[in-house]
């Protein structure tokens, strides 16, 4: 199984510059990956010859990065995978609820990572599972997966929209700018606290029913349970989120779905916009 190669052409502004400087600042390759490339046989080449990081590069040079093979110990598991987008560098899937993203002590073979491993092996690919965004087990929606370390490091800005249904009637759009920390007597539950980490959630009312309000959330920060904690703090916990005071009357998992992602493609720089339909169990709540 061959490694993935990345090719970069040296522009005029890097003519006669140090190779390491070119890789770091023009190619956006991390210092850690550069170190791995140096230790990899023919990790960096020019004209099929080894290129050292201390060498200079010149305008028009074709510098090839031979990415090291990934180690992968995740057990492949056959399962349904809803692929929204895929190319040689990125895989975006629509994760169903009740599925963990990564293996844990109690979930060794039934996670998204396990199913992606099975899927990739069937395509004669094998890469370390690197989720750019992480969502809770019970949260559904889009998950962006990088197929190599370079891509994972390159996608630094990932815009996300979440659709949620809250208990109660939210009157107007708003912003929650309240710090969050782990509750002292819990290993999981978060709470609003002045001495917590900065957390900012914007929400917009989309629809409502007598019992529930559908909102669209965007985040300035990415704290664990941020939307769940913030909406509970306002007095409008997510439906089905009993951990934060939500009602289980009409849904058995938190009504939260990652419905949209936008990012610049790490190779082409093309703007990628992807969307996922809100699942039936969440939309149906507005019948009540």
UniProtKB/TrEMBL annotation:
It is an enzyme of class 5 (isomerase). The active site is at residue 136. Keywords: Isomerase. GO terms for biological process: enzyme-directed rRNA pseudouridine synthesis. Its EC number is 5.4.99.-. It holds the Pfam family PseudoU_synth_2. It catalyses: a uridine in RNA = a pseudouridine in RNA. One of its GO terms (molecular function) is pseudouridine synthase activity. Residues 90-232 form the Pseudouridine synthase RsuA/RluA-like domain. InterPro entries: PsdUridine_synth_cat_dom_sf, PsdUridine_synth_RluA-like_CS, PsdUridine_synth_RluC/D, PsdUridine_synth_RsuA/RluA, RluA_PseudoU_synthase. Belongs to the pseudouridine synthase RluA family. Responsible for synthesis of pseudouridine from uracil. This is Pseudouridine synthase.
